[in-house]
Amino acid sequence: MTTGMERLAAAVKGARSDRIPVFCNLFDQGARELGISSIEEYYSKGENVAEAQLAMQKKYGYDNLWNLFFVGKEAELFGCRKIIFANDGSPNVGEFVIKGYDDIHKLEAPVELESHPQFAECIKCMEILVRENKGEQPIIAYVTASMTLPVILMGMDNWLELLLAGPAEVRDELIAKCCEYVRAHIAYQIKAGADCIVYANPFASTSILPMSMVEELSFPWMEKDIAGFDRGSMVFYCGGAAFNNVIEKVIERLGLLNFYLSPMADIAEGRRIVDGRGLVCGAFDDMKLLHWGREEIRREVKRIIDAGMPGNRFAFGVQGMPLGIPEDNIHYMLEAAFEFGRQDG
Amino acid sequence: MQDISELQKSYFHALCELDEKKTSSLIEGALAGGVKPDELLIKVVIPSIDQMNEELIMGQEINLAQHYLSAKISESIAMKLLDQVQTAGECPGCVVIGTAVGDFHGLGKKIVIACLRAHMFKVIDAGTHVSPEAFVDLAIENNAQVIGISSMMAHTATGPNGALGVRKILRERELEGKIKIMVGGAPFRFDHGLYEHVNADGWGENGLEAVATAKRLIKEVEG
Q1: By the CB < 8 Å criterion, does B22 face chain A?
Q2: B98 and B70, same structural domain?
Q3: What is the ipTM for the molecules in this complex?
Q4: Looking at the structure, do residues B72 and B51 belong to the same domain, yes or no?
Q5: Out of A223, A323, A338, B70, which residue is the most buried by the measure of CB atoms under 10 Å away?
């Protein structure tokens, strides 16, 4: 039986497999899968996250495993001790570690990840995934870029104000500290066995910043974030924001060739720009899965695959899959992706 | 006396550049030159934020940073001008706005508040993590015609403690004709039909749309 790893390897090379790779990003659903009623309890143990990732992959049959807890987890590494857990959705950062510029001066980048108490469960999770998976499914790690990390450290509004109207030296001091952590994070994930690094930076999208700032500020920091690391296993992503208009610059300046498009992106256009130089993943807008029916879901999956599949080097994916999505709808989406994404017929 | 249309052009240009100092100095200069604050508000500040948002949206060039800072600049100037207006301007109505329970993302709310205030709405900022009961109580207390609920996350947008919870209370207290619900935030931008599923009366993709939706809903209440 073909494994997810084989499908991904074929897609990256532009070869055919039984079908295109299908990525499904289930996180908070892991608690339900293990019958744990509290999401806080679920995320308290790396064993839980690893067990649920393995169980959900087997149950649904998609082609990836995540070594990712929740996005706010990175704030804990920087000192945040207040995460607000809900039982019907993702955890929130409840208190920002940066309340003023002094906090930026005092901030220490968590670079010794392997001995960091807040990272211990992530390490456990990764060890189990690597051991149990035996190389069958790609293990994916999520790395938040240095330009984006300040959002969970000081809030989006405060970060935008510092970024656009604050003192440049304070802004750069903060990004530099985040960059130190990002580099340590990428190094750990590669060493620990991640097959793929999703490098996420909404601040590289012109939906968030003007193009001039993307080019003059975001790109230089992205260059620093990933300098010296193998680009072949990295995927560029803007956290759901559209970024077709920066793809060419990403290829030229960062040497990244694989792209996880926004659900709002024109997939065919994204494919044309990448032009076979790397893998393109077209994303389903999973908010629609909250209330769509089977036929609507199938039509949308077919639209995405029809737009992206010709010429190979294409994968099907989703966004962050809200917990409220009915299980039936996850099955409908995946069965359609497996069917329309067949390559052996 | 300064030519008001020329002033509007200069102010609009400074706003597009997000140049807070220039926008302030233009307004202060005009006030010193004898232009009335209400005239500045109606003929300079409001048309400029509208024009900027319209042009950015039409050209699909709008970005969050510009939207946030321009709204903030406009709000600050509008509030200063409103303090100097002798007779009360035409307040379109009152909006209570906050984020749903469990949601601590306040940026979208701030943008909408700034745009509403720049358009002379009375706005009650309910803060973040607001219960349905608190939304309704604040609306009653302030005679607000609209409750605005901002959500960044799917579960806070669609859960029972967001718009669905507010709707339930309005129905139970027979207030649906007097208080309308509008929503906004990332989940609604990804799914334009989602506002109907959470029983809201309208939604706004950005600050400008939120102003238009609030105006429409207030008309419905008053009509």
Answers
A1: no
A2: no
A3: 0.80
A4: yes
A5: B70
- The tokens for A196 are 């793929």
- B120 and B204 in a single domain? The answer is yes
CA angle B116, B205, B217 (to 5 degrees): 55
The percent of residues in chain A predicted with pLDDT above 70, rounded, is 100
Number of domains chain B is built from: 2
Q: Using the beta-carbon criterion (under 8 Å), do B154 and A264 form an inter-chain contact? A: no
Measured in degrees and rounded to the nearest 5, phi and psi for residue A246 equal -115, 0
- Decide which of B84, B114, B146 is a domain's last residue: B84
Element (H, E) at B156: helix B154-158
Residues B140 and B63 in one domain: no
pLDDT digits (tens, 9 = 90+) for A168-222: 999 999 999 999 999 999 999 999 999 999 999 999 999 899 899 999 999 999 9
Task: Give me the number of domains chain A comprises.
Answer: 1
H, E, C per residue of A237-277: ECCCCCCHHHHHHHHHHHCCCEEECCCCCCHHHHHHHHCCC
pLDDT band for B83, please (50, 70, 90 cuts).
Answer: confident
For A152, name the nearest residue in chain B, comparing CA atoms only: B105
Which uninterrupted H or E stretch holds B76?
Answer: helix B64-84
pLDDT digits (tens, 9 = 90+) for A219-277: 999 999 999 999 999 999 999 899 999 999 999 999 999 999 999 999 999 999 999 99
Q: Does B57 touch chain A (CB under 8 A)?
A: no
Cβ–Cβ below 8 Å for A240 and B106: no
Give contacts of B105 with chain A, Cβ < 8 Å: 92, 156
A80-107 per-position pLDDT tens digit: 999 999 888 999 998 999 999 999 999 9
CATH code at position A158: 3.20.20.210
Q: For position B114, which CATH number holds?
A: 3.40.50.280
CA dihedral A120, A126, A130, A131 (to 10 degrees): 40
End position of a domain, from candidates B39, B61, B84 = B84
What is the domain range of residue B50?
A: 4-84
The number of beta carbons lying within 10 Å of the beta carbon of residue A111 is 16
Could you give the CA distance from residue A114 to residue A106 in angstroms, rounded to a whole number? 22
Nearest CA in chain A to B20: A165
B78/B178 same-domain check:
no
